[in-house]
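Data card: per-record layout.
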Amino acid sequence: MKRRNNISMLIAMVIAFTIVLSGCDRVSFKPEDVNYDNVISYIDSLKIDLTEVTPIKGEIPAKTVKNDSSQAIMYELPDISSYDPVVVGTAPNNVEVFLPLEDNNSTINKVVESAACKYNEEHAGNSSVTIRILESSLANDFIKSGTYLPKGYIASNELYGLMLKESGIKVSKVSDKLVGNTIGIVLKKDVAKKIKVSESENQFDVVFKAVMNDEIKIGYPNPTNNPSGLNFVISMLSYFDSTNPFSMEATTDFGAFQSKATVAYSSTQLKESVNRGQTDGFVMEYEAFKNDSSLNDFEFIPFGVRHDYPLYSVGNVSEEEVIVLSEFAKVFEESEIKEMANFSGFNQNAEYSSKVNAGAYEGLISEVLDYWKVEKKSGKKVAVYFVCDISGSMGGRKIDALKESALNAMQYVGEDNLVGLITFTHDVYLNLPLGVFNTEQQELFAGSIRNLKSGGGTATNNALLHALKLLDTYYRKNPDTIPMIFLLSDGYTESGYSLSTVKCLIDAFDIPIYTIGYEANLKELESIAKINNGVSINASTDDVGYILKSLFDAQT
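The structure for this 556-residue chain is written out next.
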């Protein structure tokens, strides 16, 4: 009898232990039953504890400044050595050329690399070119700051060359065109047919009217870090008034249009927005469109300044260096490179001629971007919770990198927005309630971040549910708010609710979660970000500071 009691006790202990490990995922709801109206009650039913922590004041990072149009945002540029050249020239007369890329999976890099290798072979021992590829805004910031000046610069369009010139950089156009390209609206074919795009000589007029009549919705990339986005904004202003982009007519019409359009950080977000049924089309380059098999059911409608990839000289270049750049440009006319460019989708739509005079915007581009930021925000405030993983696996350099990222992000938030902080181990902590990011809130945020220590398990999704609930509670009372979450973690969840169990709850809020991974399980973090059209950043390879800057620029 005693033996049986011992066995029964052992079985009970095993069952209890099993419930501790897996019982958290035993929920009383079905995913198909969850919606925005009942999601809060379902989260409450999970009874996830939230422990409030007394925030600690700390010193605000010196580089944190007001994020508004009247004051430049100061931040540290990464080391140029982090971006190795893709082609290295070794001749005595070697010229380095920057190739800035926008986020659209363009094959321009392959064409330029091939042209550079061909040039170096043809001029072996005499002259050569070195090609360094960077993200568009990063390349521009290296040059504008004077931190690193190449001798050559391949811009997507003429507007980017004008932007550098406007910043006081000496630039001269060496070639108007290396390869031909255009931007335009990529629109679902059934939608294009519905609004009768093909029946009009001016197809963009039809698209614009459909947007304004709420028949369709389109999105475009952030103009502060994307050449197609900048092109689109300037071309829209010119569309409304070709003589004065800041006339009452242009700004009024653009404001009305902007209220109906969406802006995203990346082309991936734009495509996902269509997949989720939130938009019907978006802006991208023709070449990238032709090479994306997922867009076979879409139609391309050209619009804006041509993207012919002009080549510029930068700074004080010698006569010999200008000759190298000029001869390099001629390689793109050689049959081998030209055929490669044609095969890649370039040099199409040759008949398209832009109605926008890009040169008319010389000296006005920064003013356009300042205007856009104000118009984009339209009085809305961003409310963001930083959700930070302080579990045991985040110890050492991971937690140090997390702190650096969070402190670095402060400079991009802006004093009129709202920030809160949640941390988690196997438990969830409210370190700093959501509040206006004034000096006091900045001190509390900085102090709380600097005092973070790692240890314990990892209940990632429990923390996200609390952050979503708190953000949504604020949003329901303040519908003009733009809610968002930054999850800083290594992505290894070992306690609390699983993502598969609570995905339906996260999805119900439709609040984007941007994940930053530190030596991370990137697949898990990408899965979280994808739920509500967020972005996943790999802190081990991506430049976190620049991506955070771009993300906040797209929202604020």
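Known properties of this structure: The two ends are 71 Å apart (CA to CA). Confidence is low (pLDDT under 50) at residues 1-24, 65-75.

See the next section for split statistics.
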